[in-house]
Amino acid sequence: MSQAIVRFGELKVESFVQGSENNWLIYGPLPYSKQHSSGLDGDVVIGATPTLEIIDADLDVAIDPHFAYVYSIATDNKLKIAFNKTKHSDKSSALEALKCISITYELGHLTPYGGMYIAIFRNSLGEEIHRTTPMPLASCTTVISTFNDTRQIDTGGYLKCEVIPDFVVS
Predict the structure, then answer these.
(1) Cα distance between residue 142 and residue 140, in whole Å
(2) Which of 95, 104, 83, 124 is nearest to 31 (CA)?
(3) 146: which residues sit within 8 A by CB, 6+ positions away?
């Protein structure tokens, strides 16, 4: 099966949760990832830091001190990464520590969807700041040529745009 690699900084954070034992970040689904079960699938590898895959129910259970982070991906395909409250007490600290760490994962079976494309805009740090809905290629060209790079973003620098085909994942 094909694989993809992304950095945490390239993913959108949906929420920051403060539990009684741990805090955790919930990211949106990994792009074009295969469907995960509610158990341990073992098909996601987080690089450069000691991690352990767990199930969602264990996100707020004490973390083995041999691991810096624990993570879970259930049937919603959302990546949840938990850490002890003493490691990162707030969202910004966790985001800063994780932004350059890579995630390798298995892709689902990708079938092109009706000649549609998605334009993804990233800032100079590689963080996604805008993603279009699927559209014909000619419309992507129009969006790119008119996209205003003075949009409110939290970092300066340039914007990068990539255009990818839209896929149905099975």
Answers:
(1) 5
(2) 104
(3) none
Residues in the chain: 170
Q: Which residues lie closer than 8 Å to 72 by C-beta, 6 or more apart?
A: 53, 54, 55, 56, 58, 59, 79, 80, 82
Using alpha carbons only, what angle is made at residue 27 by residues 133 and 70, rounded to the nearest 5 degrees? 155
Whether 130 has a pLDDT exceeding 60, the answer reads yes
Q: Is the pLDDT of residue 153 over 90?
A: no
Contact 118, 133 (CB under 8 A): yes
Greater confidence, 102 or 40?
102
Q: What is the CB neighbour count within 10 angstroms for residue 157?
A: 10
Instruction: DSSP letter for 62, please.
Output: P
Inform me whether the pLDDT recorded for 149 exceeds 60.
no
- Tokens 């993809």 label which residue? 4
pLDDT at 138: 94
Q: How far apart are CA 97 and CA 157, in angstroms?
A: 21
H or E stretch including 123? none
Q: Is the pLDDT of residue 150 over 70?
A: no
* Range from 35-39, 70-74, 120-124 carrying the lowest mean pLDDT: 35-39
